[in-house]
Amino acid sequence: MMKNKTSLFLIACLCCGYTSFAQNPLKGAKYAVEAGAFASTAESNPFWVRSNQFGEVPLGSPAFSLRGELKKDYDSLTNAKAKRKLQFGYGARAVANVGENSRFFFSEFYGKARYGAFEFYAGRRKEIVGLVDSTLSMGSYSWSGNALPIPKVQIGLFNYVPLLKNGLISFKANFAQGWFGSGDSTKKYFLHQKSAYFRLGKPAWKMKFYAGINHQVQWGGRPTVPFIQSGTNSLITNYGSDLEAFIHVATGISLQALGYYKKSGRVSGEGGNRLGNHLGTVDIGLEYENEATKWFFYRQSIYEDGSLFVLSSIADGLLGASIELKEANQGVKKIVLEYLNTSNQGGNLQSGNQTAFIPELRGADDYFNNGTYEEGWVYRKQTIGTPFIMPLSASTGVTLKDLIGDFQPKSPVMPDMIINNRVKAWMLGIHSRISRVNLLTRVSYSQNFGKYYLYSRVLLAPIELNQVSVQQQVSFSVKKYIINAIVAYDNAGLLENNIGGSLVVRREF
């Protein structure tokens, strides 16, 4: 956080810097600057103004934002020579937000290299993980683009690579190590991430089938305040962060099955089970494309423990359908309809000793929450996955006492924990065009049921808060400028009654 005078000074420097870049462009690089303003009738920006914006739009309103961007990409994949040589790229995107909590940061700052099908990159980069329509979706479940990108190093395949010479089966994967930094409950902890996806169908086929899995883990670090681990009476001063711990994190092996629960004064497993906070989705998708239309159907099934394995949480997941009208120059161009369910979580019976006898009793998964990493699946106060599961600071219409009662965390400061993770949500997204104006419309309705437990064996009283959020975005060009305006509305449900919007002007060089 910064003082307003310091922020204004940095904004001025940013403008001057990007102006000079524009006058002396580097070969092959692209530049852009943006200026935007945000206002609303409540103290926070509406849900569809701030969600899935990679952490760039502040929660508080009113606010002013200035952004600068510098990027260099690879040569086109259609260039045969480009596929056979080592290529480099980079990107930087600086954001200065001025408001109640002024802040200057980089939402992207990375370098990358590609040789053939393989790519390596290091830094912050905007990404979405999972089979989903990336342009109109309510957000991929585990990695939606809602939070500021986490800095990491990653190696993977740049695109789907044929496993067979005829291209019938193709493969895409990544492997990454990232750094969360420090939160209220945990200091200097890490991210482990990997994914693997297959495509069945030749590139020229009209129909293709997709399937894959993604896996994310919060791990390592140390507690802000050392504590005594129940059951072992061991003083916990740090969590496993060595090579042995990394192997356990990457494989997801059960430490309980290996026969040990504690080691060298640290927590070796989450509840004696696995080291770290594991989560992800198992995805399937079906694509059909002809000359006029492109259809995409997808399903993301959620896992955080063994509930999905025994199918007790199979009702939960993200279900979507997208249709693109490829030949439409005017009118409706794309429609996306999605349904998200996270309310089951394997039922309300928590995992415990009874699961040794009845494996199906692995419920109350408490999505995005964790007893060790109390902030949950959150980075810089924003959910990394679907924005419909939100931390306390984002639930502006719900008081602390309503959902968490007298809970006392291990950390000296109340972490910005996930308080609403049992959700049913429907969303309709439409991209259309009238004359030279592009329109993006989103309407979402969600039923919010809070959560099953609050780090105790006492079942919380059930709640239901219904939330309607609407967005209308309009974008068009005026000479060399791109104008992007949004009007949005939230009813009084989980969030406050709110009408607001944004106006952003972009200039590319």
From TrEMBL:
Residues 1-22 form the signal peptide. InterPro entries: Wzi_sf. Keywords: Signal. This is Capsule assembly protein Wzi. It comes from Runella rosea.
